[in-house]
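Contributing new complexes? Match this layout with pyridoxal-5'-phosphate.
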Amino acid sequence: MLDFVRPNILRMQGYEPGEQPQQSDYVKLNTNENPYPPSPRVLEALQQALSGERLRKYPDPLGWQFRETAARIFQVPPEAILIANGSDDALTIITRTLVPENGVICYPNPSYLLYETLAAIQGARCHSVPFTADGDLPPESLPRGVHVTYVPNPNSPTGTVVPRGRLERWPTPLVIDEAYADFAEDNYLQLPLHQERVIVTRSLSKSYSLAGIRFGFAVACPELTRHLYKVKDSYNCDALSLVAATAAIADQEYMRQNVARIRATRQRITPLLRHLGFTVPDSQANFVWCRHAQHSARWLYEQLKARRILVRYMRYPQTEGLRITIGTDADMERLLDELRRLV
Ligand SMILES: Cc1ncc(COP(=O)(O)O)c(C=O)c1O
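Output block (do not edit by hand):
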């Protein structure tokens, strides 16, 4: 009996990431990766880094080169930027900084399942806030004494965004998880500079095609960012991820071109999925959330997997569905062909 393990760790399930099959013959539409390669500038920068002294030495624990480049591009002070080993790492650092044992974490329902895991590790309690039918998130049902609310915007798995005006007036400390913001029409990256209780997190895994590198960042007011740096591992971002991330964000034009292709594919396939009988909310992310009146999501997931197409089956207390990443046009044609046979 491992009774020396903290009771909340013994009790918790552990976060289950999407399947990552190592065979490459799947059409992989389950973890919101970008179907296009990263900027050629990333590969050049990595090759240069490999030929130098970089691997022998520790990386810059404060990631100044990335922060200065990002600051210029996003018009925020470098002191406001936290570097992270993927935006999941930023979410972990924020939770450890803001939430005490027995504290309270809020998030919408349905949304990113990791928030619940972070709460369980911290020994905190969870409270979920339901979306209204039109995707709004009224804060009236929030309990007292909330330490932080996480809102993915666009949301996963639905791809929807909350109406403008709502998050600016949120009554608790707030993390706006903008992992998918580059695919959306709007974002809140500047808000933390005006509101010290707001933090925005960003990922390089999706719009910059760097899920394999593990890099993300957060923007908070400089004073709060100083506290976040005390909590992060000293060398949470390795030398190569810092080089790759800096080169990737410096090439905004390349990122925008890929995002435009993905948005065009999203636009094209959404009505086709609806035509097959799926309910699909308008998505502002690089995936769509699909539910079918006649067929169970689990059955469809299994049928597609047997045909070497991997989508994400997701089950929540009140709903279940398929979250389907937008791939290349050819990937989506394969998917639609199989779905036409199945539904
Ligand atoms: C809403 C949301 N936030 C954060 C992440 C984590 O991204 P990263 O790869 O940067 O850790 C994901 C990944 O799927 C996500 O869906």
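Reviewers usually confirm one structural detail per submission. For this one: Residues 32, 86-88, 112, 152, 156, 177, 179, 203, 205, 211, 216 surround pyridoxal-5'-phosphate (CB under 6 Å).
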